[in-house]
Write a structure and sequence with these properties.
Rossmann fold, 9 helices
Length: 260
């Protein structure tokens, strides 16, 4: 009997979750974990093949998920995807903003189009999809989880646009928490450290570093390993469920002690 209460606290049964950037990496890990806990998941991305692989992982475990093509930098795409989600599922209980890109350059070497790309996907995209999805959450309340970064909270080398975008995500999270608390919508951020994803490995290539050496250096933290998408997904699950129903405007660092 005592375990039934524990299951209630983490269950997302009858919940609808929207995950941007769900085709790979952290987004895929989050989508799969939320589905494992009972949510029906709308997977948003521009990469259909990767998104369909995410959905395959979910359906193999008897979960339910559906792909929605969405470029989060586009107002029209975000509105269209939200309209389709409403038609398919009727409501949204959880929104996880995972979509993001990184360009490893300082401000002197960073081109304007690279700055725009990182800010548009990572920060503007969080705003745009929230702009359309939040009204679907207002009637019943819900939870928004924005994926920040350890570099939301401190600076990092050769990552000017990424640091700016992820820093903006965390302060946007606080602003949204203030504005939508009256609708019983909680807004929190999860700030991962280095996570073993295609995005992290692309950073090594951008910097011209050996990938194996880069990954070893990334594991130099108190818990001596690089994180996994599942590590981040478990933190997202905390914010999505009832364990955190009086938590909003918070930032949870998930980085194996790297910031410490």
């Amino acid at each position: 009997m005592k375990y039934n209460k524990a299951l209630e606290l983490i269950s997302l049964e009858n919940k609808i979750a929207v995950v941007t950037g769900g085709a790979s990496g952290i987004g895929r890990g989050v989508a799969v974990r939320l589905a494992e806990m009972g949510a029906k998941v709308a997977v948003l991305d521009i990469q259909e093949a990767g998104a369909q692989e995410t959905i395959k992982l979910i359906t193999q475990q008897e979960g339910e998920a559906k792909f929605f093509h969405c470029d989060v930098t586009s107002d029209a795409y975000c509105k269209q995807a939200t309209d389709q989600i409403k038609e398919s599922f009727g409501k949204v209980d959880t929104l996880v903003n995972c979509a993001g890109v990184v360009v490893r350059k300082d401000v002197v070497n960073l081109a304007e189009k690279e700055w725009d790309l990182v800010l548009d996907v990572t920060l503007k995209g969080t705003y745009l999809i929230s702009h359309y999805v939040l009204p679907l959450m207002m009637e019943q309340g819900g939870s928004v989880i924005n994926i920040g970064s350890g570099w939301s909270l401190k600076g990092g080398p050769n990552a000017a646009a990424y640091c700016a975008a992820k820093g903006g995500v965390v302060n946007l999270t606080r602003s949204m928490a203030i504005d939508f608390g009256k609708h019983n919508i909680r807004v929190n951020s999860v700030c991962p450290g280095d996570i073993d994803t295609p995005l992290l490995r692309s950073e090594a290539r951008q910097l011209g570093e050996d990938i194996d050496k880069f990954m070893v250096e990334a594991a130099d933290r108190p818990i001596q390993r690089v994180g996994t998408p599942e590590d981040v997904a478990n933190a997202v699950l905390y914010f999505a469920g009832d364990m955190s129903k009086w938590v909003t405007g918070a930032t949870l660092v998930v980085d194996g002690g790297g910031l410490a």
